[in-house]
Design a protein that fits this description.
91 residues, alpha+beta, Alpha-Beta Plaits, 3 helices
């Protein structure tokens, strides 16, 4: 999960950059979402197939896409890594 508080006016550029970055996802990504909360707090939540594949991706790029999206918008993101303990989906 990569999060940042965006400066005013950065919402549209972040949304467009996310759309472009996710037009083609690495095969290791199961799901990703761009979400907005209170106080202009935004997050990119990405579920990877495994921690090992996430680490492989991190080694293969200079700057991860989620970090770059927020930095390009003038915000310094915070990255937090969680392990999935249990997963459920409807449908």
């Amino acid at each position: 999960m990569t999060s940042a508080t965006l400066p005013s006016g950065a919402e549209a550029p972040v949304t467009e950059a996310y759309r472009q970055a996710t037009a083609t996802l690495p095969h290791m990504v199961i799901h990703t979402a761009l979400v907005r909360g209170e106080g202009n707090e935004w997050r990119i939540v990405t579920l990877w197939r495994s921690r090992e594949q996430w680490e492989e991706y991190r080694r293969s790029v200079d700057t991860p896409a989620a970090v770059k999206i927020f930095r390009d918008a003038g915000a310094e993101p915070v990255v937090a890594v969680f392990d999935v303990v249990h997963r459920a989906a409807s449908g």
